[in-house]
Write a structure and sequence with these properties.
With 97 residues, the chain is mostly loops. The N and C termini lie far apart (58 Å).
Length: 97
């Protein structure tokens, strides 16, 4: 089995159970790059939770930020003053509510 890219190679001594230095490869005090994931979907579908940020961050030792935002008709702003006449095809929409 091939070790992963982030694994530290140490020699195992099975007689003394000495596994070498247990130095953490992720330095907590160093600056890290930041990845910001903004999902697509043409304002109709999608979520920031589609991508598991923990998996991305474990591969590259980076900080991953995902965001959620409003989709569909609510994505464009305040609709309080939105008034218009319903077309012939939309006359039954209020009945569905």
């Amino acid at each position: 089995m091939t070790p992963g890219a982030n694994t530290k190679k140490v020699a195992d001594d099975i007689t003394t159970n000495d596994r070498g230095d247990d130095e953490d490869i992720h330095d907590q005090n160093s600056k890290k790059p930041v990845m910001v994931y903004i999902h697509g979907g043409s304002y109709m579908e999608g979520t920031g939770n589609m991508i598991d940020g923990s998996i991305l961050s474990s591969y590259g030792n980076v900080i991953v930020i995902t965001i959620n935002y409003r989709l569909g008709i609510l994505a464009k702003g305040n609709l309080e003053d939105f008034e218009r006449e319903l077309s012939f095809n939309e006359w039954d929409l209020p009945l569905l509510k």
